[in-house]
Amino acid sequence: MSAIRRFEDIDAWQLGRELTRRVYEATRGSSFARDFGLRDQIQRASVPITSNIAEGFERRSPQDFARILLIARGSAGEVRSQLYAPLDLGSIEQDTFDDLYALATRISRATVALARHNRAHADTTREPYDPYLVPRTEYPTTAPS
After folding, report:
1. What are phi and psi of 34, to 5 degrees?
2. pLDDT grade, residue 145 (50/70/90)?
3. 142: closest CA among 106, 96, 115?
4. Could you give the CA distance from residue 38 to residue 6 in angstroms, rounded to a whole number?
5. How far apart are CA 107 and CA 18, in angstroms?
6. Are 1 and 136 in contact (CB under 8 A)?
7. Rg, Å, the chain Cα set
8. CA 5 to chain centre
9. What string of H, E and C letters represents the secondary structure of 47-87?
10. How many CA atoms lie within 13 A of 92 on its CB side?
C-alpha cells in the first residue's frame, strides 16, 4: 500500500493537471481561440482544480482538506458546464467534449471520495493527522464500470 506523500501523488491532482492541459489544447484551435471570453473562462475554471487540491493537502488538516477538495470538485463541475457552450457553437467536436467531460467527472468523483476519507478520519480519531501518510488505496479514482 503506497502512501500519498506529496500533493503531486494525489490521483485527483494528476487528473486535474491533465484536464488543464487538454482544456488549453482544445481552446487553441479554430474558432475557440478567437472567442476570448469563453476561452478565458473555461481555462480559468480548470486551473484552480490542482491549486485547491494542493492547498488543501498542505494545510495538514482533514477538515480543511475535505472542504477544499469540494471546492476543487466545484471547479470541475464548472468546467463540465462550460463545455456545453463551445459544443453548441461548434467550437469543439463531440469527441473532445466527451473526453473533457469524462475527465472532469473522474476528478469530481476522486475529490469526493478523498473528502469522505478525510472527513471519516477527522470524525473517528483525535490522533494528529498527517496527510502525507494517507494510503492511496482508500479511495477510488475512477468511475465504476
Report:
1. -90, -15
2. very low
3. 106
4. 33
5. 10
6. yes
7. 16
8. 18
9. HHHHHHHHHHHHCCCHHHHHHHHHHHHHHHHHHHHHHHHHH
10. 27
Tens of pLDDT, residues 63-98: 899 999 999 999 999 999 999 999 999 889 999 999
What does the pLDDT read at residue 49?
A: 97
Quick: pLDDT tens for 31-57. 788 888 889 999 999 999 999 999 999
Quote the pTM value: 0.81
* Residue with more model confidence, 22 or 127: 22
Range 29-57 burial, b when 16+ CB lie within 10 A, else e: eeebeebeebbebbbebbbbbbbbbbbbb
Q: Which of 24, 45, 49, 42 shows the shortest CA–CA distance to 86?
A: 42
With cell 477538495, the residue in question is 69
| Whether 8 contacts 57, CB under 8 Å | no
Q: Identify the CA nearest to 40 among candidates 53, 52, 23, 17.
A: 23
